[in-house]
Amino acid sequence: MKVIYIDPMSYNNLAIYDSCLLSNVNANIYFVGNELYDSKQIKSIEFYPFFNYSKKKGLNKVISYISSLIKIIGLVKSKNPNIIHIQWIRFWYADYILLRYLIKKKIKVVYTAHNILPHRRQRFDFIKYKKYYKLVDSIIVHTENSKEILISNFKIEEYKINVIPHGILDLSTSINRDKVEILKNEIRHRYNLNKKIVFSSLGAQDLYKGTDFIFNVWNEAFSSNNNVFLFACGKLSDEIVEVAESTKISNFNNTYTKFNRIENELFLAILQLSDVVLLPYRKISQSGVLLSAINEQIPFIVSNAGGLSDALSIGNVGWNIGYANRESLLTTLKYIINNSEEIKNKKENITAWSKIHKYYSWEVIGQKTTDLYNRILYNCDKLVKKDI
């Protein structure tokens, strides 16, 4: 079984995802990725860094991406794969043309829908993605919630949808661990964190992640509380710039803010210093920050968005605020601060963490992906191709 695995965004957390998944899939893999790929190389897999659009702008970015897809067509002709597994759609029209080409060549196509629709939706996104979903042979989603959306909203046949969790993200495998320890010691000493409850909001700061809830609640209720501390690090969306300025979140003595993309070493240092990770998302399918927190066994606050609360159904290692809003987040934060012993109890709930780690195990995920490849190759009678 020969598989061409395509990820145009294979860098940072996504590179770790690719590396962990492909290390556990039993197939002859040709990996087409980004030139910025920064995770470990896999000895048994041929790597083709065809994508170099990331640092380009405007028309040059589009031309570069189309050029990469042309190279993929050449690879398909030379390798004659049974399956193409696509991880992300970046320029829909170009990706759609590639998909039509693969279908005409009678190559099975698997698509991983990390997000059912883009976070920043444009006018015709629903129509375009529905068209794409209808044509592929199989769709991988990470949560039951995403599966239900594809069935109910997009009218996708249930047999085409496969729920395979997004595995745990272990950043320590591809970074300077000594630097992480140095950063932790410096930050802990500078802000005297030893006796404080430390909360963190990491990664891109955006409305869909509920960053405005965090900033407003902190400004309203906790800005003068010397027993708590907030890390808010990551690039601000345009909407959140206004919230950051209006709340003056960067001016408080009990906050540390860095509003641009942060290096992996600083991300991991802050994560490991955190007592609770804040994820009051309005909408999401699955969160890389959550999976990094799970790997480090850091308790977390989540909403009911997407599959964020799935881990809590397996083990009691965090808090679910339900529908994401300012009031529910405020209530939960007050409860945690007044009942801080719960943080320690959740951190030390070894049985719960063990069950969660098993559910998000890359070995299990790799086997499920291998099983899917085999099914779409050998049970073709169950996969009826739509007219094109």
Structural topology:
Elements: E1 2-6, H1 13-22, E2 28-34, E3 46-51, H2 58-79, E4 83-86, H3 92-104, E5 108-112, H4 125-135, E6 138-141, H5 144-152, E7 161-163, H6 177-190, E8 197-202, H7 211-222, E9 228-233, H8 238-247, E10 255-258, H9 264-273, E11 276-279, H10 288-296, E12 300-302, H11 310-314, E13 318-320, H12 326-338, H13 341-347, H14 350-359, H15 362-378
Parallel strand pairs: 1-2, 1-4, 2-3, 4-5, 5-6, 6-7, 8-9, 8-11, 9-10, 11-12, 12-13
Helix pairs in contact: 3-4, 6-9, 7-8, 7-12
Task: Describe, in plain words, how this protein is organized in 3D.
The protein is an alpha/beta fold and 388 residues long. The protein folds into two domains: 188 residues, Rossmann fold (3-Layer(aba) Sandwich); 188 residues, Rossmann fold, CATH 3.40.50. 44% of the residues lie in helices and 15% in strands. The strands form two sheets. The chain has a seven-stranded parallel β-sheet with strand order 3-2-1-4-5-6-7, with helices on both faces. A six-stranded parallel β-sheet has the order 10-9-8-11-12-13, sandwiched between helices. Strand 1, helix 1 and strand 2 form a beta-alpha-beta unit. The two termini are 26 Å apart. The C terminus is likely disordered.
